[in-house]
Amino acid sequence: MYELLRQACDAARKAGCTFADARYLEIDEQSLASRDRALAHHGESSDRGVGVRVLLQGAWGFALAPGYDAEAVDSAVATALEIARASAHAPRDGGVGWADETTWQAEFRSDCVQDPFTVSLEDKADLLLAANEVMLQNPAIKRAQGYLAFRRLRRWYVNTEGSELHSDVTSASAMLWAVAVGDGDFQQRCWQAPSVTRGFEAFDRARFVAEAERVAAEAEEKLTAAPAPEGNFDIVTDSENLSLTIHESVGHATELDRVMGYEVSMAGGSFVSRDKLDRFRYGSDQVTLMADNTLQHGLATHGFDDDGVPGQRWPIVEDGILRGYSTGREFAHYVGEQRSRGSCRADHWSSIPIVRIPNLFLMPGKQPLTPDELIGDIDHGLYFEGMDSFSIDQWRLNFQFGGNAVWEIRNGRKTRMLKAALYQSSTPEFWNACDATCDERFWQAHGVTNCGKGDPLQVAQMTHGAAPTRFRGIRICRGRD
Ligand SMILES: [Zn+2]
Questions:
Q1: Within 13 Å and on the Cβ side, how many CA atoms surround 104?
Q2: How close is the Cα of 60 to the center of ligand 1, in Å?
Q3: pLDDT class of 164 with cuts at 50, 70, 90
């Protein structure tokens, strides 16, 4: 599939471009949703096309061609050149600082034992309906729902530097949720299977049934949960809960394009200005946040990014100190780096690549520490599990996060369930309050599948993760019941 892409790059080179690349994508998606004892939705889509990007006279041009058609690709190159020539009339100071990169010829294929697109619809529906049936056996549950989604993304990439790259990535995600009704109230509890780049083998029927039973029981328990206390408390977050906090307060805050103001009109800015690199205390010495686009089964692990740069692993925060940003080839020079971190991705063949959050996780603690020991050292606190409502400001500084289930900790033990608890803090205050995280035996990954950024909006996926982690003296307030 490289032929038309090579032709596009040759045409751009002849037109005087200092750089150009072309990507052909085949995107296949399938989703299923269940409601109570029936399948409520089944959707499939298949989409193919080429995106051409050119750098001419220090300005970008981008155009697209649906399908894989020579004439359409020629016309896309012409349009991209025209856009670049027009953009060159309003040059950016110093043009585009484009980081060098080695020429690569490579292929990447994600682990996929059982291709989800060859698994029958009946088998997929059976997984969801079996889980719904278990949830509905609990008399308090008045609605049971499930969702499965699969995606296969095949990509061919060529640039004027001679790189030719291919990736074939299959991902799977799933969710179950139960709504309990009673005492003039309703409450929802959900389970999100860790989204991963794996095939249908990622899903296990016995696990779905077990999670369904737990989710239903906890939705029922939420109906009679006590209102959360307010004030300052020690808190423990589970892996899924902290994944969202990592995403919002570290992931977005350290995207270098955002730091440079490129996203101000839509996604916002960042408080993590460049003068903070290698000196700012982001968190306590317990906090090491690692970016890793080589993480096995990570949603941002695609072998290489849409600038033609291989996936890498680098620290964003190391022992509490800010050590790095997420970059693409256009942004590396802003922090004096010679090479891109390989974190520039487009969500579709018709989208221009932008800096995206990599797979990013809190490293597990170095000393052996179990969740029981972590909680055991708290007199009165709260335990947050799962994702719920959240809010964070445009500078990624002040925030509040809820949990899908929250328990009170009394005298070192998890006790009754609480409702409407939110933790409220500012990014450096929160991460500096971290005094312990459990060891690697308790570390888990969680995917984010709907990260929005850019204008027009692009939706990207990446994986986060953590072990259960403790934060001291965090302000708790009460949200909606
Ligand atoms: Zn996001």
A1: 20
A2: 25
A3: very high
Residue 252 Cα to ligand 1 midpoint, Å, equals 6
When pLDDT is cut at 50, 70 and 90, the band that residue 91 belongs to is: confident
Structure tokens at 10: 């040759």
* Dist. CA 452 → ligand 1 center (Å): 5
> 479: CA distance to ligand 1 center in Å?
22
pLDDT tens sequence across 238-283? 999 999 999 999 999 999 999 999 998 888 999 999 999 999 999 9
In 364-404, which ranges are E strands? Answer: 380-385, 390-392, 398-402
User: What is the predicted pLDDT for the residue at 480?
Assistant: 76
CA distances from 34 to 3, 31, 40, 62, 143 (A): 43, 10, 5, 40, 10
Quote the ligand 1 centre to 392 CA distance (angstroms): 11
* Cα 411 to Cα 227: distance, rounded to the nearest angstrom: 19
Quick: pLDDT tens for 280-300. Answer: 999 999 999 999 999 999 999
pLDDT category, 96, cuts 50, 70, 90?
A: confident
pTM: 0.97
Taking the C-alpha atoms of residue 354 and residue 307, their distance in angstroms, rounded to an integer, is 9
Ligand 1 mean position, distance from CA 387 (Å): 14
Q: Read out DSSP for 406-431?
A: EEEEETTEEEEEEESEEEEEEHHHHH
Q: What is the pLDDT of residues 333-343, one digit of tens each?
A: 999 999 999 99
Q: Give distance in angstroms: CA of 94 to centre of ligand 1.
A: 30
Measure 317 CA to ligand 1 centroid, in angstroms: 18
Average pLDDT over residues 419-426: 96
Q: Which of 272, 256, 203, 193 is nearest to 449 (CA)?
A: 193
For ligand 1, the distance from its centroid to the CA atom of residue 39, given in whole angstroms, is: 30
Alpha carbon 392 to its chain's center: 16
In angstroms, the CA 81 to CA 397 distance is 40
Task: Count Cα neighbours of 148 within 13 Å in the Cβ-side half-sphere.
Answer: 29
Distance of CA 255 to the CA centre of its chain: 13
Q: Output the CA 167–ligand 1 centroid distance in Å.
A: 23
